[in-house]
Amino acid sequence: MVRFYQGIDLRSRNAMIEFLVKHFRYYTANSWNGSQSYACNLKINRLDLSSEIVDKLFDMIHTQEFFYGIDELLQEFNHQHGYLWQASMNGRNGGYLVLYQGQATKSDYKSFCTSCGQRNYRSVQETGPICGRCKKPHRIDYMTAPLNISVFPGRGTDDNENFKDWDINDIRERVRLVQEFDMLADKIVDYAIMCANNYTVEDEEIFIPKTRKILVPLT
Hints:
Distance between the termini: 72 Å
Order of helices and strands: HEEHHEEEEHEEH
Number of domains: 2
Largest sheet: 5 strands, antiparallel
Oligomer: single chain
Strand content: 15-25%
């Protein structure tokens, strides 16, 4: 099984630079853009897993539930780094975990509806508890304004960077960031294996309500 995290001697400038320079990279947008960042190849057939687990994972990636746990891991990483650094999937089939730069700013929303989720730029004190969308009196004010989270998909990280000009503490900080990113990749692989060992994929038949016109006799 492929593991991405590597222990690096954080006292050695040469070892840290070698780690950063040789780390796998992938595009932050498209290949034509040219910008790249640190990345991990998480394609199922590249993780050196057993054929049984590989077959099950190829089934599981067609379910929504499988990605819930992965999204939680990504959000945890992004939150821990204040959304200045964010991990997300890229590639034609989403097989590459890529480290992005981003930001989080406070939004201007003041309230929201607990029934339908509609957000409002005015407080309940200003306009009352009635929701403009669902008309229910379930609007409440935010205790803390929600964040607007964004990412810079066209921005690369350390493209052709000359780390020899960096202060050693800055190099060490970058290495630790990339190591944490690699640990995230390992957590995603561990999660996938856990799912393969504990779950199976079955077909579920669902019925979707459909509206149609009918004739109703006059009363």
